[in-house]
Specification:
Structural class: alpha+beta
Strand order of the largest sheet: 1-2-5-6-7-8-9
Number of strands: 16
Radius of gyration: 18 Å
Helix content: 10-25%
Strand content: 15-25%
Order of helices and strands: HEEEHHEEEHEHEHHHEEEEEHHEEE
Number of helices: 10
Shape: globular
Bound molecules: zinc ion
Largest sheet: 7 strands, mixed
Length: 341
Amino acid sequence: MTGLDRRQFVRLNAVALAGAAMAPGFTVARHPGGGSPTTGPLAPPGFYRFSLGEMQITTLNDGSFGLPSAIPGVDVSPHEFLALNVDPETRSKFFRSRMVPADDLPLEASPVLIDSGQQRFLVDTGGWIGEPAPSSVGRLGAAMTAAGVSPESIDVVVLTHAHPDHVGGLLDPATRLPRFPNAEVVISDVELELWTGEGAEDRFRDLPLPLPETQAVIRAMDDRMRTIRPGDEVATGIRSEPSPGHTEGHVSILVESGGQELLLTGDAIVSTHAAFEQPDWQSMFDHDPEQAARTRRRLLDRAATDEMLILGYHFPFAGLGYAVRDGQGYRWLPVGSGSAA
Ligand SMILES: [Zn+2]
C-alpha cells in the first residue's frame, strides 16, 4: 500500500465516508481539463426505463456529489482516492488520458427500480446521513415522481450495503419516518451484523463514519427488516451475489427474466475507468481493498464471459453497459437509450 500504512488508510477511508455524511453544501462540479457533464442542482430529475424479459427496470438518478469536495477531512485527489497502491506518475498519466479531473470528480448515485409485474423492488435509496447533505443529492423522490412511481407502491427495498449514500433515503427527509411505508427492507446478515452487531463500536473505532446515525436509520427499519445470506434469492428472478470488500456484507443483485440477465454491481465496481481497466488498483472507498479487488475481478470476469448487462450505482447515468476483456483488464462499453436490453 504505497505511502500509506494500513492504519492511516483506514483512518482516511473512514474520514472519507464520515465526511461524506457531513458535507457542508455542494457546488456544481467543475471540469478542469475535461470530464463529462453531470447532474447539478439545476438538473431535472432523471430516470431511464427499459425492459429485461418480462420485467421493467428503471434507473432513478438521486443526483451527484463531488469527490473529494463532499468529503471534508480527506485531502487527496480523486486520482489517489481511486488508485492508492499506484505510483503518482502512473496514475496521473492514466487518469489524465481518460479526462478524469485531478481536483474533483463528480459521482452520480442511481437507485434502481425493478418491476417484476407482481412486485416492485427498489435497490438502494440514495440520500445522505448527517446534516447538511450536499444540495445535489437526495432527488430520488423527484425522480420517482417523474417516473410515475409512488413510495407506497414499493414492496421491497433491497440494500447492497449500508453506506450513507445507499441507506440515507430510507427515511422521508421531511418526516424522518420510513419513506416506503409498505416495503420490507432486505439486507445481508453480514452487513447488518457489521453495522449493528455486538462490537460495532470497536469495528468502527478508527472509522469515524456516522455510526450512531446510520444505526438509527437501520433500526428504524426493525419492524420491516428481512435478512438474507449473501447468495440467497431475494425473490423469483432476483438473487443476491456475494461481493465483499467494499463493505464486509456487500451484495450485488442479479436480475434474470426471459433468458436475459442484468447485474446490479452496487459499489463493488465504483468507476468506469480504473475499476475496469485496472481492477487491482485499490480504492479508498473500500473497507478491505484487497478483497474488493478480488471481487471486482470475479464480477468482471463473469460479466465479460456471459456478455451480461451490468448497471453500476455510481456510473455516469444511466449506468448501463457491458464489460469486455481488454489486455489484463476490461473495458466499459456503455449502452444508451434505445440500445439497452
Ligand atoms: Zn456508494
